[in-house]
Each structure stands twice: as structure tokens, then as C-alpha cells.
Amino acid sequence: MIVLVLGSGGREHALAWKISQSSLLNKLYIAPGNAGTSELGENVAINPEHFDKVADFAIKNKVEIIVVGPEGPLVNGIHDYFAKDPGLSSITIIGPKKEGAILEGSKDFSKKFMLKNNIPTAKYKSFDSATIKEGELYLDTMKPPFVLKADGLAGGKGVLILNDLKEAKTELRQMLSKKKFGDASNKVVVEEFLDGVEVSVFIITDGMSYKILPEAKDYKRIGEGDTGLNTGGMGAISPVPFANREFMDKVENQIIIPTVKGLRKENIEYSGFIFFGLILVKGDPYVIEYNCRLGDPETEVILPRLKSDLLDLFDGIATDTLSERDVEIDPKSAGTVMLVSGGYPEKYKTGEKIQIGDLHERSVLFHAGTKQENGEILTAGGRVISVTSFGKDIESSVKNSYTTISNIHFNKMNYRKDIGKDVIKKVK
Ligand code: AMP
Ligand code: GLY
After folding, report:
1. 425, pLDDT greater than 70
2. Measuring CA to CA, which of 179, 254, 261, 334 is 20 to 30 A from 205?
3. Looking at the whole model, is its pTM more than 0.85?
4. For residue 9, which ligand has an atom nearest its CA?
């Protein structure tokens, strides 16, 4: 098969790494990719948002499968663009059409969808610029902390959690009448705060059947002990100790099955991944958010634990035979630690030379923001390299990553030293 992966982060490097192990693969392209993906396939300088350029390339190079890494192209309709053109419609797109990607693209839609399908989630109401007053009155009825969510995509920054009622009302106004998050905050979801531990669950689906992939926990804050600003993700672990059989059965019955059935009921054809951002409250799972793609850096720990051939699963989607395919998961643990540029998630410098020494034998590097120039590898983003390692448990997998990290250097390199520590403590 000839495959094109769209995107340039650690998630896309991990996808390319897994795909490159498949005996079904003939040729792998990554657009635009990074210094790491260029070792596995051919990087192509195309912006995934330029659908016409992606299409031209796909036709010329006889691409059969396009795997869409980030949400942007999906929410903006890349799958629809290919499906409606008879010259392109035979190419399989891994990722939903716009009508499915709206599960991530609109929080208001996803909350309504959950309510309709009896899927456990925080109580909420949505408001727009005409109903700001009602929004303030609704906030009056709630207990702090107050959760405000911009309806649309806001680059991971559209959720505000505030302790002060007055501040919550001010922010609601800023979002709705001052477009704090641009058009993404034309509508705002105000919802009840849920207190619990978070876990990310992933499925791959052809719209009829689904397969559950390994679950993961990510570490979003920049600082140790989950402090400081939110980032794209500073590390992840899989499996998640509290996501035991009983919990996963609840997730499947109360969340996954009603979601897949709900999509069918609404005649939404969905193919690709669904990422369930869940929170465990008093033994029960609730949905915090849906994403229409894999997570980053969760992918860097879930794909290494997938024993099955990922291209075989994609072929199952292409031919509507996913139900006949096997998903086998490795019981060993995987942990990943993200190396970031000093200053991230605020201002940071790029173009720093990266030196990579010996890796621990159980480590694998997934590049995020890197580029190759004159034979050197340079930093090219906030998140730079995701260092994944295997181990018999979370503790040893993360320890192996820290051993590898001691041999990687770039100016102002930063990383969290406590990935996985919270769950290790709880298990003991
Ligand atoms: P989201 O973009 O919806 O994933 O929200 C970003 C983060 O905000 C989540 O990963 C949670 O940590 C937190 N969050 C969102 N909604 C809630 C909620 N209702 N209760 C508690 N925390 C939340
Ligand atoms: N790690 C969270 C995300 O990919 O949205």
C-alpha cells in the first residue's frame, strides 16, 4: 500500500513508525513531517490544510491511504473534499468527514449529542452573545470552580476554569461579546466542574464496528506536580493502572457503544479514530471531551503497545471489514517524556542544535518539533522530542526514558521529571 501521513508532530512520527513496520506497506510519505519521519519515509513539503495540493500529490503518487494526524484538516473537511470528487473518492481517508469531526469541532454539538444519547458528562448550558445575561444567571446557580468552554477549536486554549464568580462572568462576556477566542467563542458552554482523575481512551472505527486501543494518561501542565500553564502535553503513560477491567467495561457500555450507535442514529458516517477524554468520578467515567483524532503525546505510548498491524486495521476501514481484524495489545508498559524548548508554552527559541547520544535499549525517539539542516538536527518547535521507553511497569518504562534523556542535549532543554509518579505512588 502507498500511504500518506499528514502532520508534523510526535503523533505523526509514531504513526509513521508503526506504519513502516507493516508488511503491507510499499511506500510511505509524510507531509510535512519532521527530521524523525524522514528516516522512515519521504517527507513532502505540503501543508495539510491545502487540500488541493494534498490531492494533486496523492493522485500523482498513487496514494491509497491518507492518515490525517491533526484535527484541523478533518474539521475543515479534508475527507469531504476527497469524497465528493470522483477522481479522489477511491482514496481512503483515515479520519471522519466534517459531520463527524464536529464531535471535536463544536463543544455545543458534542454536549447535545451526549445528552441525547444518555452518555455521562458534566451538566451544562450553552450561551451566545444574545444570551449573556442568562449565562450570568446560570453561573449564579453553580458552585466554583466555574468551567467555561469556547464552542469551537481554540488550539487547546479555549477552556477556562475559574474560582471566582465575578471573574467567570467577566470572562463569559469577553468570550461572547469581545471574541476572546475569535469565532470559536461565538458560543460558550458553561458546565459543572468534575473532580477526578483523567484518562484518554481511543477507538478505531469504520462506523459499524470498533476496536479499543490501549488507554493512556497524559500530563498537560508544564510544571511538576501538575502545576503551571497548560501545554500540548509533557508526557504520557500506558496502561493506566486505575483503568482496570471493571472501569473499561463501564467505559465501553456507557460511553463507547452509545457514541458509535448515536453517530449511526444521526446518519453520521464515521471512519477513523475517536479519542474520549474521560474523567473518573467516584468510580464512574464521564466524558470531558471528544476528539476526532489520536492524542499527542498519547499516540507515542499507545501505538508502541499495539502488537497488531496498523495498516491491516486501516485496510479494515477501507473495505468496511474492521470487525474481522484483530487488535492485540502488548501487556508491557510504555512511558514517554517530552523534551521541550526553554520558555514553552510561552515564548521560546528554535534552531538550537540537538545532540543525541546513546539510547537506552528499550527507548525509541519520536520527533515533534525538529528539522534537518546541513546534516544537523535542529529544534523547530515548542515540543521537540518525545522519548518513549518500554518497561515491565510504568516505573521502569519512565526510568528508561530518563536514562536516554541524560544523553540528549540542546540549549535550554526542559522536561518534567515526574511523569508517571502520581500513578506509581497510588499503585504501591
Ligand atoms: P478540554 O479541552 O475540554 O479537554 O478541556 C481541557 C482540560 O480542562 C481537560 O483536560 C480537563 O483537565 C479540564 N476540564 C474540562 N472540563 C472540565 C470539567 N467539566 N471539570 C473538570 N475539569 C475539566
Ligand atoms: N494530549 C491531548 C491531546 O492530544 O488533545
Report:
1. no
2. 334
3. yes
4. 2
* Neighbour tally for 353: CB within 10 Å: 12
Going by C-beta distance under 8 Å and a sequence separation of 6 or more, which residues neighbour residue 409? 354, 355
**CA–CA dist 131, 187 (Å, integer):** 10
Q: Out of 289, 290, 291, 292, give the residue to mutate to test ligand 1, the one with the largest number of ligand atoms within 8 Å of its CB.
A: 289
For residue 150, the CA-to-ligand 1 centroid distance in Å is: 12
pLDDT tops 90 at residue 24 = yes
Question: Rounded distance, CA 205 to CA 174, Å?
Answer: 38
Nearest 10 degrees: Cα torsion 17, 77, 158, 169: -160
Which part of the chain has CATH 3.40.50.20?
Answer: 2-96
Say which CATH architecture domain 2-96 belongs to: 3-Layer(aba) Sandwich (3.40)
Question: In ligand 2, which atom is closest to the CA atom of 11?
Answer: 4
- pLDDT of residue 391 exceeding 60, the answer is yes
Q: pLDDT tens digit string along 76-85?
A: 999 999 999 9
Distance CA 118, CA 258 (A): 8
From 3.40.190.10, 3.40.50.10490, 3.30.1490.20, 3.50.30.10, which CATH number describes the 124-191 domain?
A: 3.30.1490.20
Distance separating alpha carbons of residues 109 and 205, to the nearest angstrom: 20
**Secondary structure string (H, E, C) spanning 67-99:** EECCHHHHHCCHHHHHHCCCCCCCCEEECCCHH
pLDDT digits (tens, 9 = 90+) for 317-330: 999 999 999 999 99
Ligand 1 atom index nearest CA of 277: 4
- Which residues belong to CATH 3.30.1490.20 in the chain? 124-191
Cell 501543508 appears where? 47
Q: What is the pLDDT of residues 253-274, one digit of tens each?
A: 999 999 999 999 999 999 999 9
Write the residue with the smallest CA distance to atom 7 of ligand 1: 159
Helix (H, G, I), strand (E, B) or coil at 5: strand
Q: How far apart are CA 218 and CA 211, in angstroms?
A: 21
**What mean pLDDT do residues 385-411 have?**
98
